[in-house]
Design goal:
It is built from 14 helices and 24 strands. By secondary structure, the chain is an alpha/beta fold. The structure holds 2-aminohexanedioic acid. 2-aminohexanedioic acid binds next to helix 5. Keywords: Oxidoreductase.
Amino acid sequence: MQPHRSKYGNALEIGHLIGGEEVFEGEMQERRNPADREDLVARFPVGAKETLRKAARAAQEAFRMWARIPAPVRGAVLMNLAQILTREKETLVRLMVREVGKTFKEAGGDVQEAIDTAVFFASEGRRLYGQTVPSEMRDKELFTFRRPLGVVGMITAGNFPIAVPSWKLIPAVLTGNTVVWKPSEDSPALSYVFVRLFEEAGLPPGVINVVFGGGKDSTGQWLVELMDEGLLNKFAFTGSTAVGRWIGEVAGRNLLRPTLELGGKNPLVVLRDADLELAVEGAWWSAFATGGQRCTSAGNIIVEAPIYEEFKKRFLEKTESTVVGNPFTHPQVTYGPFINQRLFERWLEHYTWGQQEGAQLLFGKARITVKNPYPHFQGDPEAGLFGWPTVWEARPGMRQFEQEIFGPTINLVRVEDLDEAIEAANAHGYGLSSAVYTNRRDWAYRFKTEIKAGMTSINNSTVGAEAHLPFGGVRGSGNGARESGIWVIEEYTYWQAVNEEYSGRLQLAQMDTGYT
Ligand code: UN1
């Protein structure tokens, strides 16, 4: 291939990473900068079922060695990784802005989240505690040990291309597992570079294997089906609820416990006593940060009647100030392009839902183009897929109230009182993030105890979870498994109970205890 250069940088030609080898197997696909389709970011192959099997076998092989490395030594690799990621932060950020169209600021946050995760788990290698447990018999001791599960299959989305994979990869390898990872086809270059940095940190070949997929291929599906072949011992997935449900079924029939981080329709409630300025800013950021392409983005802003009109006026003013464009060439934009065509099309579709169901469009005119200009656009709108910040007035029961849209769209919903606000905040099938703005402690208490959500903010936006808190949801947002923080260790290990007999006799539990 001719080295492809643009004002953004070079294009990478990358292969799958299997057992430490770079493997070019399968048809080559391209990843282009979503803010400027002229810019080729990477060329990468699309893995077949056999490529995945090869990767799973390499991971099985590596597991025999890696599981035996002492956990503090595995942790030391992560400490190196944290240092290397810190050193490479700027390069990764630039690549992220280019490959998925995030702003520099948000890309910085994404990489920082991985650094924080590496720092957190590096010392966890020295704390993978088990217990000593008293025996009911004499001269006998009981212990518990955490053991790794084996080979973990992983599928991740492209909207958090470093942070979200780090939540999975880092605890998985710290606890002694090995991995076959199918990253998003929206972020092949970042995924490749990330794994190369693990290797530089001292991770042995075969511990993390990467097999790329492509838009219309079935690589992800085949990876899931490797559970049926007995090649995987655990599955971790971030993506849509529909796909997560299916992965849960395949894992279930193989008696595996998956980690499923799925969609959200996160409510942000503004009560009558709220600090309006704070609430407007938080709601705006929850709606439009990352162009709404976060699983924690707000879906509905639910506002109490006495302040509704005032909130609406201020929120629309704030929305009008949103700057959209190419984040690489115009770093001050609020958000950039859609990460991919599929998300754009779904977002476009919701304009029809709104009209069909009688929602009122308060702001927004679908795709930004030269003929349909948005006043605060920076760059070339035709070079990628960009959307107007969009605000609706909607009600529970409407499709756009209930379904995740994953784009720059928000609904304002008017409610009469706190009871109705909580009811509306729960009137959808998800339960990931949530927020309430109020200065009354009793109202905040009612909200946090009655909302069905894995994460709740009081006087803060729905986005921006910290790296050492449990991340995950209830209902359609996941299966209860948590990522991040200490809780995730539970998902990548099993407990082994060991008893050691010193009596020199066959003592029988429950029968030789002296009580019977
Ligand atoms: C996601 O969108 O999949 O809490 C993850 C947040 C980020 C992670 C989002 N720290 O918004």
